Amino acid sequence: MSDKNEPRNEKDRQLDQYRVNDRDKPMTTNQGVKVSEDEFSLKAGDRGPTLMEDFHFREKLTHFDHERIPERVVHARGYAAHGEFECYEPMKEFTRAGFLSEKGKKTPVFVRFSTVLGSRGSADTVRDVRGFATKFYTEEGNYDLVGNNMPVFFIQDAIKFPDIIHAGKPEPDTEIPQAATAHDTFWDFVANNQETAHQVMWLMSDRGIPRSFRMMEGFGINTFRFVNEEEEAFFVKFHWKPKLGVHSLVWEEAQEISGKDPDFHRRDLYESIETENYPEYELGVQIVPQDDEFRFPFDVLDATKLWPEELVPVKIIGKMTLNRNVDNVFAETEQVAFHPGNVVPGIDFTNDPLLQGRLFSYIDTQLIRLGGPNFHEIPINRPICPFFNNQRDGYHRQTINKGKVSYHKNSLWNNTPSPVPPSKGGYKHYEEKVEGRKIRARSDSFKDHFSQAKLFWNSLTPVEKQHTVNGFSFELGKVQSKSLRQQNVEMFAHVDYELARQIADNVGVERPRHVESSGVANSKAISQENTVKLPNTRRVAVLIADGFNSNVVLNVLESLAKQGIQAYIISEKLGPVTGNDGIQLEATKTFQTGPSVLFDAVYIVAGARASKQFAKDALNYVSEAYRHFKPIGATGEGISWLELMKIGNVPGVIVQKSDGREFTNRFIAAIARHRFWNRPI
User: Fold this and answer.
1) Catalytically active residues, by annotation
2) pLDDT tens for residues 472-483?
3) What Å distances lie between residue 622 and 149, 171, 595, CA to CA?
4) What is the reported pTM?
5) pLDDT tens, residue by residue, 178-204
6) What is the DSSP string of 455-482?
7) Largest alpha-carbon pair distance within the chain?
8) Is 86 inside a domain boundary?
């Protein structure tokens, strides 16, 4: 495996000057003075008072007292990685952005994934929207594509952003619940702001609990513009498509993981990169010519609407690979500053009212979090291209500007730094004609709140629909106000009567009045049933005891490894487990430290000398995996155990009968499928 500190691209080489390895170095103060003692403060006698002249003590404590900065108001719980974006084909027809200008061109990137509502210390697997923010370090400056794992948002106008976040955060009188929307204030907002309907449908579905950051989509949400060299403009939406497909956890599984490994998603990302199973995402764009702005049954500037891929296909234009973990989470993941206003020539804004508000809010929040206007000089935020202007001073200034000129225009420095015309790379805003009365209002084209929520519902499989009903039922079941439960049931009857009826029955309110429904449109891109299904990087728990059939097990493990499947040996205790011919395998996890919810599949081997306690733990382990619809494989003594459980001949349960190769092929195919929803429970 390559050294993770080895510079891979221009940004890595730039960051290299800031990296410090303290190992085997002498301890010094921040001023470089070598420290002779770090266990005891300076005192007047060995039992006397501490002396104020102890400069090392003062420096150490002062720094500690000031180590924390305000966490992000939203997206506080995050994890990140470095990588590289490669352009598949020139996009000059649509944009003059340099990083999209030629086939094979590579650009360093930094990506931060996050949950929206929880604090930094909350769990990874809560039901929530996930952030998917990408910083491209291009040769023309930094470009930030700041989005989520869902293509739409709760609100249409950014003036309501404080309201939706206040409603979703823990209720202020109790500070409960953490990282959850299953409470009164959130659902009060939903019922009284019906533009939330589409986003809430996504959130209550399986999309709200992704299997991993590596297996979720990313969306720019807002409508941007591409502008080419001829000043032609196009509306554009951005998509990240994971190469491993889009997969989710089941709700019970997600709840258990929150207790057993609250760092499940960040650990998954970290370990995948460390083992060189690099996460990959293809970048796709939906492009609409400006002349077609009004030809759709929705407003292309409405952030609560997606552009169905059947109407506007996604064009894949490049691939991003995350190939290096951060060296320090605070210095990189926490200090990275994203802003949708960080654009490069060829990418511009639209009148999307949510986007317009984001252009103010993001830079404003960085000022308070990072202590002043120079956050762009923090290493993780610095562009790879040089930057020059007449901005000066402020908190944490790192640049040492020579000379006496700090203004424009000037003659002392030959009127430099000087603006650059667009023909030579200077940024030029698209010249859009804008006119109208100043008015606080919303376009009538923004007032349809249910057609795309209905589109989402119609696109789901029966299993996905049931999961969505369950999501609503859990969340609204936690709402104390019966009136709010009733209001929400009435609201979602406009999406689908059967959906609302089931929710009503589950949360103890009256069934809604029947709302006439029209339209049965659906989109294949919405259902996860239509996603890519691959076995590689899936995690398999191998339950094994002394006396196992070494020949069979080693062949199975070898076959799994060839498909990129990661097998973990699990037994009663850590250490060697001995096969029937003396061969030993090392158990790296126990039933307690490696529960089934942390794995995608289970392979039960057992062994001739398995103890009664092993049998009890293994049967409970398999039972839980079975209940979560996961693939289960069995050989040797494991087969009889499945027969004992009466699950030896059901979908997704694969047992070896004769040909070992047939077993591994079928088991690998089952692992790729991920879940077996048609299994009797």
Assistant:
1) 75, 148
2) 999 999 999 999
3) 31, 39, 10
4) 0.95
5) 999 999 999 999 999 999 999 999 999
6) HHHHHS-HHHHHHHHHHHHHHHHT---H
7) 90
8) yes
